[in-house]
TrEMBL record:
It comes from the Bacteria. It comes from Fusicatenibacter faecihominis. It holds the Pfam family Methyltransf_11. Signal peptide: none annotated. GO terms for molecular function: S-adenosylmethionine-dependent methyltransferase activity. This is Class I SAM-dependent methyltransferase. Keywords: Methyltransferase, Transferase.
Length: 204
């Protein structure tokens, strides 16, 4: 994870500016998330600068928001005035929480940028309650228009760690193959197509 930490540490101060162009899409996403997390104990992994956590904190009972990048967490802590929200540096592949600790786990726009997303999903499944919900919105780059492909090319040149290029259909299939049942999915139009998903643990 060191190479990814270096990329995100280097770009932590620019992250919010980069995300600003998709503000309208993220507002829609917050509206989808808030009813799911209402009065729940929530974990967010790969929180970045805490955009999602800060926008949903009023709805939750408590939220732990984590990221592997210390610089991202430093940025996230700026302007956090809610006692219900705690930021910390954690490894999404080895979380320090007890099994079945959370009602909801959020992993947003992260599964496509890590080399072993299935490993992260196993760890998420461990800390999520049996009747809990996984919220996993992810950019599905394989559905890019030509301008999107050009943008992805230059992001790659800049060192952006993109490991998985899924279409929305491929992404949902990936989740199902890793023992998740998709209960809701919506494709939102952003700089890249954003597939919003809510999942529950599959019956084994």
């Amino acid at each position: 994870m060191r190479e990814h930490k270096n990329f995100w540490d280097r770009n932590a101060g620019l992250y919010d500016c980069f995300m600003r162009k998709d503000r309208a899409v993220y507002e829609k996403m917050y509206e989808l998330i808030r009813p799911v997390v209402k009065d729940k104990t929530v974990l967010e992994v790969a929180t970045g600068t805490g955009l999602i956590a800060k926008h949903i904190v009023k709805a939750v009972a408590h939220i732990e928001a984590t990221d592997a990048s210390p610089e991202m967490i430093t940025e996230a802590k700026r302007g956090n005035y809610s006692a219900k929200l705690r930021f910390s540096v954690q490894d999404m592949f080895s979380l320090p929480y007890a099994s079945k600790s959370f009602d909801v786990v959020i992993v947003s726009n992260a599964l496509h940028i890590v080399p072993q997303p299935e490993k992260s999903l196993r760890e998420i499944k461990r800390v999520l309650k049996d009747d809990g919900v996984l919220i996993a919105p992810t950019f599905t780059h394989a559905e890019n228009s030509f301008p999107g492909k050009v943008k992805a090319f230059f992001m790659n040149l800049a060192g952006f760690p993109l490991h998985s290029k899924w279409t929305s259909e491929e992404y949902l299939k990936f989740l199902q193959q890793n023992d998740w049942t998709v209960r809701k999915s919506v494709v939102l139009k952003a700089s890249f197509p954003l597939t919003y998903t809510e999942c529950v643990k599959s019956e084994v």
